[in-house]
Design a protein that fits this description.
Elements: H1 2-20, H2 27-47, H3 62-77, H4 83-90, H5 96-106, H6 109-118, H7 141-182, H8 187-215, E1 227-234, E2 240-246, E3 252-264, E4 267-277, E5 284-290, H9 292-296, H10 298-305, H11 311-314, E6 315-317, E7 323-327, E8 331-342, E9 351-362
Parallel strand pairs: 5-6
Antiparallel strand pairs: 1-9, 2-3, 3-4, 4-5, 7-8, 8-9
Length: about 475
């Protein structure tokens, strides 16, 4: 049940909130349409009711159907029509026999005489009344209210359906293309359309490139490329493409891209390919595809050399099939020039179109060779300390180990005089106290943080 509820919520959000709601009519629009419909009904039935012409006799109101029967009686009295025609005309109204019987008692004598003469024709030969056409009956108040509510509901539904059909299907697919085709085109419109077409073509080429790369065996030791994009320059475009380098888990490693490196006039003469590694954000690698004139002209080449690290290898002629490789310790980017369209007026100087395939690999995604194991350090015993020079004093012997018994007091031997005339006095070892267990070793003397001998406290304060 919980899964069904979540499915309904997701369907509502996906279908209605995202797709339909932006194209739905507003409440104000729907209310305005309902009021317009009600005003139309009021106008058509009250203020300016519809008038019908050339209707059938049975569609007339009751008093006018009576007039029709009187006219038929007058025609019978004047012998204008034969009996068969008289019966046919009488059959055009509802219940002609009852109408004739009622009018005989309610009209003047002259009309009564004509109706009495007409009476035999409103009955069949077997004496049954002549059947006429049934007149429409007015509806009840409840049926009128139901029809009014039904009209309001239909108006609301049609408003929603027509609005969705107009905004989703009709306007973008029919109206806007026709309007765009009829509207005079400016240079900006032409350039914008060319850019849109180029973007669509680039997406199609990228999909084809990915499919072909998936089918082909990987030729790079780092496996399939993380990024496969096309960077397309067309004349007049603000050319500055950048593509993220990230894996399937959206882990970001860096960026690569292409931008205009040099213009001659208003046309592009060189394109810069760059690589940014997030682990080495200080250094950004750049290399250049240059036209023949930009490559060989000293002034232009000097400007391009400022953008690269090694001008001898980082600036190449822009020819189809030429590849530039940009590499850091973690990322490898290959930029291949697929197609070039030189400017017609300056074929060796500038370009009208360039198509560059950008592929990027992260070196950590491939199985790199295991690094050589560093040799484990071998423990070497420390060198023995040099023997001290002999001095003339008696060594102090350690106390004899006995449980909780003081060691014997070592004998005291007067120190001998050294060659320098100084007397060395060894420290006097006091006997251990008579207690069990032996006392804990005293803590070391705390470090004096006051080198100046003052009374201030130089300990750092806690935050």
């Amino acid at each position: 049940m919980k899964g069904l509820r979540q499915w309904l919520i997701d369907s509502y959000n996906g279908v209605y909130v995202i797709v339909l709601k932006p194209h739905m009519p507003t409440i104000v629009t729907v209310v305005a349409l309902v009021f317009a419909m009600l005003f139309g009904l009021f106008w058509g039935y009250v203020l300016n009711p519809v008038r019908y012409y050339d209707g059938a006799p049975h569609q007339l109101r009751g008093e006018w159907r009576d007039e029709w029967v009187k006219l038929v009686a007058a025609a019978k009295a004047a012998e204008i029509y034969n009996d068969a025609d008289i019966q046919r005309y009488l059959a055009l109204v509802e219940d002609p026999a009852n109408v004739v019987e009622r009018l005989i008692t309610d009209t003047t004598e002259s009309v009564q005489a004509a109706l009495i003469e007409l009476r035999p024709l409103v009955y069949n030969s077997d004496g049954s009344p002549l059947q006429g056409r049934e007149a429409p009956k007015p509806g009840s108040a409840i049926s009128d209210i139901v029809m009014l509510l039904l009209a309001i509901i239909i108006t609301v539904v049609l408003a929603v359906v027509v609005s969705l059909a107009w905004r989703i299907l009709i306007k973008p697919n029919v109206v806007l293309p026709i309007r765009e085709a009829l509207r005079p085109k400016t240079e900006e419109d032409i350039q914008r359309k060319a850019n849109i077409d180029a973007i669509r073509a680039r997406r199609i080429q990228e999909e084809e490139m990915r499919r072909e790369a998936a089918k082909a065996a990987p030729t790079n030791p780092y496996g399939p490329a993380l990024t496969q994009r096309l960077s397309v320059y067309t004349k007049g475009r603000q050319f500055d493409d950048s593509f993220a380098i990230e894996n399937a888990d959206k882990v970001f490693f860096g960026e690569c891209g292409a931008a205009i490196a040099k213009k001659l006039g208003n046309d592009v003469a060189a394109v810069e390919i760059w690589l940014f590694d997030k682990e080495d954000f200080v250094n950004q690698i750049a290399k250049v595809f240059a036209s023949e004139k930009a490559y060989s002209t000293p002034e232009v080449r000097a400007e391009l050399e400022e953008k690269v690290k090694d001008p001898a290898t980082d600036i190449v002629l822009a020819q189809p099939g030429t590849m530039l490789t940009l590499e850091t310790d973690r990322i490898l980017v290959q930029a291949t020039l697929l197609d070039t369209t030189p400017t017609a007026t300056a074929p060796n100087s500038t370009f009208d179109k360039l198509t560059i395939k950008m592929e990027a690999w992260h070196k950590g995604t491939a199985a790199a060779p295991a690094p050589a194991t560093a040799p484990s350090p071998v423990y070497a015993p420390p060198a023995p300390a040099p023997a001290p020079e002999p001095v003339n004093y008696a060594p102090i012997s350690a106390p004899t180990p006995s449980p909780y018994a003081p060691p014997p007091v070592p004998p005291y031997t007067p120190p001998s005089q050294t060659a320098a005339g100084t007397v060395y006095t060894p420290p006097i070892v006091a006997p251990p106290p008579r207690q069990a267990p032996p006392p804990r070793r005293p803590d070391p003397t705390p470090f004096d943080d006051d080198p100046f001998g003052g009374t201030a406290d130089f300990d750092p304060l806690d935050d």
